[in-house]
C-alpha cells in the first residue's frame, strides 16, 4: 500500500507521480497525488471514474482536457478543473515543458493500487514498449479488478465486462495477477472497493452478445494501444 512520499515513474513515458495523501491517511475519503506530465507526451485514453470525483489543479505548465468528448480546454498554472463522477474525460500536456499537477480522487477507493500496478509493471519491463501498456491478458485482469475505479470511455461497459470476463481467466491460468504484492503490499492491507464482487461476464448480455461484444472491445483495445504509441498533441 502506498504511503505519503512514495513516488512512481513510468520509464517509457517519463510521467511521474508522488503520493501526497493516501487512502490510509484519510480513512478512504481522499487520494491526493503530485503528477508530473512530460512535455509533448501522448493523450491519455479517455476514461470514466464511475464513483469518484476527480479534481486537477495545475501548479506549473499547462494541461489540456477534453471532458464528455467536447471541446478541448487548456488549464494553466493557478487554475483547476473538477470532473464529476461518471464523466468521460482525458488529458495531456498542452506544451513542451513538463506540467506539474495536483490530482485528487474522492473517495480514494483502490486507485493507488491501480497506479502502483501499472507503473510497477512498466518498471519491470512488462509492458509493450510502443504503447506503454501491459499486454491484453494482463490488462484484462487489471481492468476487471478496478472497474469501481475506472473503465474506458469508448466501448459500452457491458462490452468491456464481456471482454475482460473472457480474457481474465486465461490470464490467471498463465500466471498473471490483477495486483502484485511487490508493488502494492499484502492483500489484507488494501482498502476495499465500492461494491461486493466483480460483475459476471454475462451480465446484461446473451452468450452471442458476449462474443460480439468481445470482438468490438478487442478492436477498442487495439485502438487504445495504437493511440498510446502514436498520439501526440501539440
From TrEMBL:
Domain (Cupin type-2) ranges: 37-102
Pfam families listed in its UniProt record: Cupin_2
KW Iron (keyword) present: no
Region (Disordered): 183-202
Entry-linked SUPFAM superfamilies: RmlC-like cupins
Ranges that cross the membrane: 201-224
Keywords: Membrane, Transmembrane, Transmembrane helix
Name used for this protein in its record: Cupin type-2 domain-containing protein
Lineage: Bacteria, Bacillati, Actinomycetota, Rubrobacteria, Rubrobacterales
Amino acid at each position: 500500500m502506498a504511503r505519503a512520499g512514495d513516488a512512481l515513474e513510468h520509464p517509457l513515458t517519463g510521467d511521474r507521480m508522488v503520493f501526497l495523501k493516501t487512502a490510509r491517511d484519510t480513512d478512504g475519503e481522499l487520494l491526493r497525488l503530485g503528477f508530473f506530465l512530460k512535455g509533448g507526451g501522448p493523450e491519455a485514453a479517455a476514461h470514466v471514474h464511475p464513483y469518484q470525483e476527480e479534481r486537477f489543479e495545475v501548479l506549473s505548465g499547462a494541461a489540456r482536457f477534453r471532458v464528455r468528448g467536447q471541446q478541448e480546454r487548456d488549464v494553466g498554472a493557478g487554475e483547476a478543473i473538477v470532473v464529476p463522477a461518471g464523466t468521460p474525460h482525458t488529458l495531456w500536456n498542452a506544451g513542451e515543458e513538463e506540467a506539474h499537477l495536483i490530482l485528487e480522487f474522492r473517495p480514494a477507493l483502490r486507485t493507488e493500487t491501480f497506479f502502483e500496478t501499472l507503473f510497477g509493471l512498466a518498471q519491470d519491463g512488462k509492458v509493450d514498449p510502443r504503447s506503454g501498456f501491459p499486454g491484453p491478458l494482463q490488462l484484462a485482469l487489471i481492468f476487471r479488478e478496478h472497474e469501481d475505479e475506472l473503465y474506458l470511455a469508448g466501448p459500452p461497459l457491458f462490452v468491456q465486462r464481456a471482454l475482460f470476463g473472457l480474457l481474465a481467466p486465461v490470464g490467471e491460468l498463465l500466471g498473471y495477477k490483477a495486483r502484485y504484492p511487490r508493488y502494492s503490499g499484502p492483500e489484507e492491507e488494501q482498502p476495499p472497493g465500492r461494491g461486493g464482487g466483480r460483475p459476471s461476464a454475462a451480465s446484461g448480455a446473451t452468450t452471442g452478445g458476449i462474443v460480439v461484444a468481445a470482438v468490438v472491445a478487442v478492436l477498442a483495445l487495439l485502438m487504445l494501444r495504437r493511440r498510446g504509441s502514436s498520439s501526440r498533441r501539440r
